[in-house]
Amino acid sequence: MTIGWWDRLRIERLVWMLDQQLYDLPRAERIATRRDVRTNLLAAAADVGTTEALRRIGGSRGLAEQYLRAEFGDRPRHSWIAAGYAAGLLPLLLNFFLTEAADAFQAGVTAAHGVGTFTWPGLAWLQSTVTVTATGAGPVSRTGGGWTPLAYVLWVLAVVAAGRLWRLRRRSSQVARAVADN
Amino acid sequence: MTESHDPQLLKGVLSLLLLHLIAERESYGYEVVQRLQAAGFADVLEGSVYPALNRLQRDGLLGTRLVPSPAGPARKYYRLSEQGRRALAESTAAWSRHVAGVEAVLARPLTAEGGH
Predict the structure, then answer these.
(1) Boundaries of each Transcription regulator PadR N-terminal domain copy (chain B) (predicted)?
(2) Which of A12, A34, A44, B91 has the fewest CB atoms within 10 Å, counting from its CB?
């Protein structure tokens, strides 16, 4: 059976979606898996048709789950993808709220037509002291308002929690035990 | 043979089947699926076979090599490793003991009192 460009696109779509869900695998293994699934799908599509080949392999989500289970076992596992999302999105959110808070303080100073240097301790525990300097002429300057050490600690803890990264420790100890057993 | 198989039973024995098929002949993923289907496991899906082959490879029971294919990209052929050969022998013996045990229980006559 001939495989046309449309069928190849359908196969590539599944392979790409599978790849996106295998980011917790080591890179070399992910690439090898992608190549293997593509080759097998092409062989199956030439044999029974693309629709049937895709049906028989199941959805990308189910297939990814099987691959991850084959690699990490049935036990609960960590997720680098979730950790990555948390690492990227939490600073965006936190920065948004901290900036909003500092902006509100600065707006208050400006609205009061104050001249001088005004400080605000910032959002409790999360933000360093915000200092707004208004000279009455020219723009108002602002310093501070960044993350406190506690904010960094909370960020790291949130990344670990979102990615369930403590499970890495258990996995590495299992690997060490398996090596010792052999 | 087209009867369906209990997925749970099949899951338990899939590794043994794969090891045996590959011990018979070096094969690539889809070919293994075809051979399983030809052996009567028509309801075995590729989505469970390929990851299982991966796991056997990761466990050192299978070795692989890429073979250029005239029909497209190179295919990954699986072959049994020495460790895989030992695992196949052990699993086959364990399976035989298991079947003998199950058959021994199933062969016992059922009494009328036990029927309800």
Answers:
(1) 18-90
(2) A12
User: Are residues A70 and B47, on separate chains, in Cβ contact within 8 Å?
Assistant: no
Taking an 8 Å cut-off on Cβ atoms, the answer to whether A39 and B71 are in contact is: no
Write down the mean pLDDT value for chain A.
87
- Asked if A43 is an interface residue toward chain B (Cβ–Cβ < 8 A), one would say yes
Q: ipTM value of the model?
A: 0.77
**Start-to-end C-alpha separation, chain B:** 34
Q: Which residue, chain included where needed, has tokens 């005004």?
A: A118
* Residue range A8-30, pLDDT digits in tens: 999 999 999 999 999 888 888 89
Touching check for A31 and chain B: CB below 8 Å? no
Query: Mind spelling out the 3-state secondary structure of B57-111?
Result: HHCCCEEEEEEEECCEEEEEEEEECHHHHHHHHHHHHHHHHHHHHHHHHHCCCCC
